[in-house]
Write a structure and sequence with these properties.
mainly alpha; 79% helix
Length: 210
């Protein structure tokens, strides 16, 4: 009998060895998927505020409406700079609140990386604003603002969820169009800072918790 059993045992061992490695229980696959998603979230800054962007989009549309009715370039500039200050305040408050809820403070690894990578294009845009204004090239401001804002969102989005870089690229394309069609600058401002913030803000809020 032992002599007859040994070939069967070897055959059983060979069959087990030939089973595919991915033949895991369903629960094990779910656990692996959960661990992978958790690791992806921990390495990404997920506190980009969707509803905060919606609010920024609404203020931008109001600003575009007001700016279009100004009689001087100086007043047009004042409207948009005022909206920039308001939008920045909304973004800071909304981001801080969502970061606290998500347990991902701005001083964390992903949060710090998001700020560091998005800040340089914004600083460059501030400097270029002064330079273009005093050089008599204010008509290029809408395109430059949209382009560099989009660059900041795109670079910062490398540390965030995948939809953020897409939003940044959309702003950049809108900025390029505004640079080539400066007479439509206020319209592109409304489409970018208003429309794109509304669209992507809603998408981010629904997919990533507010």
């Amino acid at each position: 009998m032992p002599e007859h059993r040994r070939p069967r045992q070897r055959l059983y061992s060979q069959r087990r060895a030939a089973q595919p490695m991915n033949a895991l229980p369903v629960n094990a696959l779910d656990d692996i998927r959960f661990i992978r998603e958790t690791m992806e979230r921990s390495s990404s800054f997920t506190a980009v505020p969707g509803w905060g962007q919606v609010a920024m989009g609404v203020t931008a549309l109001v600003a575009a409406w007001l700016a279009a009715r100004q009689s001087t370039l100086h007043d047009w500039m004042a409207v948009w700079l005022g909206d920039a200050v308001l939008a920045l305040s909304i973004a800071l408050v909304a981001t801080h609140r969502k970061a606290l809820r998500a347990g991902v403070p701005l001083t964390s690894g992903p949060g710090s990386k998001f700020v560091r990578t998005s800040l340089p294009p914004i600083v460059a845009g501030s400097i270029l604003t002064v330079a273009l204004w005093y050089s008599g090239m204010a008509r290029l401001l809408p395109g430059m603002w949209l382009l560099l804002y989009g660059t900041g969102v795109l670079t910062g989005g490398a540390a965030s969820v995948s939809i953020v870089p897409v939003m940044g690229a959309s702003f950049m394309l809108t900025g390029v169009a505004a640079l080539f069609l400066p007479a439509w600058g206020n319209v592109f401002m409304a489409a970018g800072f208003g429309g794109l913030h509304l669209i992507f803000g809603v998408l981010i809020a629904r997919r990533f918790g507010g």
